[in-house]
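Reviewer 2 asked us to include a model.

Predict the structure of this chain.
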Amino acid sequence: MRIIDLDSLEIFRTVVQEGGIIRAANKLNRVQSNVTTRIKQLEERLGLSLFRRQGRSLVLSPEGELLLSYAQRLFRLADEAENELRSGKPMGVFRIGSLESTAGSRLAPILSRFHKLYPGVVVELVTGTTGALIQRVTHFEIEAAFVSEPFTAPGLEKLKVFEEELVLITSKEWDAVTKPSQLSGATLIAFFNGCSYRKRAEEWLGGSGVMPARTLEFASYQAMIACVAAGTGFALVPRSLLVALKAASDVKQHEMPAKIRRNHTHLIWNGTPSTALARLTALVAG
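Predicted model (structure tokens):
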């Protein structure tokens, strides 16, 4: 027997969105005691506390955070079902994630085409590392994400969509790099932990017992490339990104071994794809 209904979830979601029982009651046009009772009933049915009180404020418990992620997905699907039945086309908010490099070098023409085909869909794009994006897809915070090898995503569906050529970049003053030992004592410039390209670089260096003197972490490729060009260290990036940013002439590019150089970007998602995701999948597959 199902113990959660959309009405209870709507009350729960409104309490979260409004930041408290009183504002939620006003929003829903209900008396405060009714909202309080419905939340308590939902907690009793689940056998879990969904909120914790901090002073006069209510904050979500970890279980409440999980329920909220499912509630948002359920309401999105309910809205999508209604819109689909009325219009026959995908509509509503479509949240996807991407590596910054993929967003900068690959997605603009795809998303432009998607928008022309399905103007009723509002695409919200977030960027992050492969590790962070996998977590967000797993918890239904976003519907899908473009991530890069190497990665593990148990329980998620995946589709190989792009092939990238990874190159090692340094300042123009560096000699040609042909083996990891030539980078001993140098500084690795990379994204935060969870970045697939960083993992590739560390595996390549580690295979020869080489460790970077230190690792500088950045949140944008423009900053990384500028730092490399200034002679601070080295980085591993997709060649397509250098072209997209018109930065190929700012740095020296060094060819990597085939097992490092050839890399694939995958589209991953959790469970049955929504109509919008199915349309996007068909677009990138084609």
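The radius of gyration is 23 Å. The mean pLDDT is 88. We have added this to the supplementary material.
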